[in-house]
Design goal:
single chain, alpha/beta, Rossmann fold, seven-stranded mixed beta sheet, 12 helices, about 40% helix, binds S-adenosylmethionine
Length: about 250
């Protein structure tokens, strides 16, 4: 499978307003804290990128009983995260070989990153190792197998085939977590809508969606031209767009 070079994306990653707006208060973290009363919690945002999740949660959970951590493979993404949030322990490392002791974290969040891991089995072994007994691993990602009509695949069809090489489907994720001894609760949120192509043009132009960096420049330019042509011909043109997100809560028992 091909991998995305995040040092090329780091500067423009936060330009995509969707990423910034869609992060909400993490009720799963709140529930965990309420159910398991302790004086201190250790939270890891795995593949934290530019720190969008951490920034929002730190604002919401204002108190000093959480020890926040972020880990990412890309130095440039971490640099952006460092500019955004204080009081977070950042680590530049690969998920497949994390420099943490075993049973270190109460709660591990992992947003939009699992498909990037080359050795997913080893990533899960490591996640299991650093998670405390009773701790939660929360895996959140797009569910590409349930969204073949995503606008990205409509205009850039080869992107779908690249994504099929990177993403595990829900059955595999469920089984791999369960066989490691985690209690898994997985849900997919799906919606179908008429999307206005014009609203997505700047996302395509920004080329910050990782799969758009994996297709060839020619395929990318051709797709972009098709989008521009459609918008020029009819600024209100819509296409059927589907979108699916996976939320998987796995508890180490
Ligand atoms: C799409 S970004 C998601 C960033 C952040 N979680 C968010 O929601 O905005 C994917 C992130 O995964 C990181 N990443 C990719 N492979 C990794 C690995 N093997 N170990 C740790 N982080 C990795 C990338 O550097 C990038 O910051």
């Amino acid at each position: 499978m091909k991998t995305t070079n995040y040092s090329k994306i780091a500067e423009k990653y936060d330009n995509n307003q969707f990423r910034v707006d869609e992060i909400r208060f993490d009720y799963d973290l709140k529930n965990y804290i309420e159910k398991d009363a302790k004086s201190k919690y250790t939270v890891l945002d795995l593949s934290c990128g530019t720190g969008l999740y951490l920034e929002k949660q730190i604002n919401y959970f204002d108190g000093d009983n959480i020890n926040w951590n972020g880990l990412d493979l890309s130095e440039k993404m971490l640099k952006k995260a460092n500019e955004k949030v204080k009081n977070v322990e950042f680590t530049n490392a690969n998920v497949e070989d994390m420099p943490y002791g075993s049973e270190n974290f109460d709660f591990i969040s992992n947003n939009y990153a699992f498909h990037h891991y080359r050795n997913k089995q080893q990533a899960l072994n490591e996640i299991y190792r650093v998670l405390q007994k009773g701790g939660i691993y929360k895996l959140h990602n797009i569910a590409i197998h349930d969204m073949p009509k995503w606008w990205v695949y409509h205009y850039f069809p080869t992107a779908y085939y690249e994504d099929l090489k990177r993403f595990w489907n829900k059955e595999v994720i469920f089984n791999e977590l369960s066989t490691r001894g985690l209690e898994v609760n997985l849900k997919i949120e799906y919606r179908m809508e008429n999307a206005r192509v014009n609203d997505y043009l700047n996302h395509a132009e920004n080329r910050d969606i990782s799969v758009l960096t994996l297709i060839s420049d020619k395929e990318y330019e051709e797709g972009l031209e098709r989008m521009k042509y459609d918008v020029k011909t009819n600024p209100d043109k819509t296409i059927v767009n589907d979108f699916a997100e996976m939320f998987c809560i796995a508890k180490k028992i």
